[in-house]
Write a structure and sequence with these properties.
The chain is an alpha+beta fold and 449 residues long. The protein has 11 helices and 20 strands.
């Protein structure tokens, strides 16, 4: 565990849960890795660890709020008003000293406040000025989310701060730029700032909003009723203000002959990290974990080791938490480490036992996958396929105690028998209910340890 000199600086720890035993010739090793940051203070008190950041990097944070101002925000007219009110509420939740800006998004991105290509410093005066500027927002034009992100990136890059964060609100589909343009913008912004994304109403594309949050290691959600925006924006900003350490990575070292099959976050949401690896020296790679406050997350690691005989043992992987320093060979080590082992045995009971944490999160990952598959099949008109997939989802949600997902599924299917996954598709499903299920399909429940 890291040992810092100030009590209000987060301390990181790593716990590994696995069944290390393999049968003779067995090769696949699975482990659940729990990463926990504690002792960083309460939400809104974000401080930067003096051992983690150099004096020139600054002790603060910067946030850019991106508000959809496309023509569809005028339907109904209350939607634009709710968006203005929500943005104002988020500005009120800013901590004094945090740099911030507001961007109005249409088919182009415009600086709403403060303007001039820079950021304002949060305080009573600038908060009031920003809220005055919000009153001038009006709806008109198209939607090109990549341009909003590009402007946010440029504004955030102008601040010498540790934490860079975006909040993005849209109510429509990204129709005024190509998918390739949006992907290029996300690739350019990845690793430079984190971003929470919200879809308001039901006329937006779930995969676009979740794709933004996934690429930029943020959260995604639906706010079906625009009246709920202010409360949601306030919660988002309070969480952002609680982030204290940025750019944390899980460094994974594996011995010769070992292959990393996958690394994925499994709680609080399922997020694939395998393809995001950056090399970090001989047989080591870094997987980005984003910004951290006081929180705990779980990761599923699977490696393939060389086969061995009974009684042999090996280190399958070594895990550590670091903050990579671009252009430098050494990273800042956060002092937390974990080991994944492999032991070959002829004890069948030991080698066939599945670790409870591994079993739980394997089910949660499958749950997210079959919900997505089921909804896609339903949209394609394959009702039998959709019924089978969503039935399996009901079964998994019930078995794992994921009550929130079970409730969302019950709005899309009639549950005949949850234990066996026997369901019937509802003849009529509210669009908001289907979109909520799709948007929240990756949310998981923690295993009881």
């Amino acid at each position: 565990m890291a040992n810092f000199s100030r009590s209000n600086v987060p301390q990181f720890s790593v716990d590994v849960y696995q069944n290390a035993y393999l049968p003779e010739g067995g090769r696949e090793v699975n482990a659940i890795v729990t990463v926990t940051a504690t002792g960083g203070g309460t939400i809104g008190s974000a401080v930067t660890a003096p051992h983690l950041y150099s004096p020139g990097e600054g002790p603060s944070a910067a946030v850019v709020l991106m508000v959809d101002c496309s023509g569809s925000m005028d339907y109904p007219p209350t939607k634009m008003r709710n968006a203005r009110d929500a943005t104002a509420a988020a500005i009120d939740a800013l901590r004094d000293g945090v740099r911030f800006a507001v961007v109005g998004g249409t088919h182009v991105a415009k600086e709403v406040y403060p303007g001039g290509g820079g950021l304002a410093v949060a305080g009573p005066g600038t908060r009031e000025q920003a809220k005055q500027a919000l009153r001038k927002l009006s709806a008109g034009g198209g939607t090109a989310i990549g341009t909003w992100l590009g402007l946010a990136d440029r504004l955030l890059a102008s601040a010498d701060v540790a934490i860079r964060h975006g909040i993005l609100l849209t109510d429509g589909r990204n129709e005024h730029e190509s998918q390739e343009d949006l992907k290029a913008a996300l690739d350019a912004c990845a690793g430079r700032f984190t971003c929470d994304a919200r879809g308001v109403g039901t006329d937006w594309e779930v995969k676009e909003v979740t794709g933004v949050a996934s690429a930029l290691l943020g959260t995604a959600d639906i706010v079906a009723d625009p009246a709920g925006l202010a409360a949601d924006f306030t919660r988002m900003m309070e969480t952002a203000m609680g982030k204290e350490v940025a750019d944390v990575s899980l460094r994974l070292w594996t011995p010769v002959g070992t292959t990393v099959r996958f690394v994925k976050q499994v709680a609080p949401t399922v997020e694939e990290l395998t393809g995001r690896r950056t090399e970090a020296g001989p047989r080591a790679g870094d997987y980005p974990l984003g910004s951290w406050g006081d929180e705990s997350r779980d990761y599923h690691l699977c490696v393939e080791v060389p086969p061995a005989g009974i009684g042999q043992e090996m280190l399958a992987a070594r895990l550590s938490l670091v903050i990579p320093r671009p252009g430098e060979e050494t990273a800042r080590n956060l002092g937390a480490q974990g080991l994944v082992r492999a032991v070959w045995t002829d004890d069948m009971a030991a080698s066939t036992s599945i670790n409870p944490q591994v079993a739980h999160y394997t089910g949660q990952a499958e749950l997210a996958e079959v919900i997505q598959q089921g909804l896609d099949l339903r949209k394609e008109g394959d009702m039998d396929g959709a019924t089978a997939k969503l039935g399996r989802a009901v079964q998994l949600a019930s078995a794992s105690g994921n009550a929130d997902t079970a409730k969302l599924l019950a709005k899309v299917v009639d549950v005949v028998d949850a234990a066996t996954g026997t369901v019937r598709l509802k003849a009529k499903v509210e669009e908001a209910d289907e979109m909520t299920l799709e948007t929240r399909s990756t949310k998981t429940v923690r295993v009881k340890k």
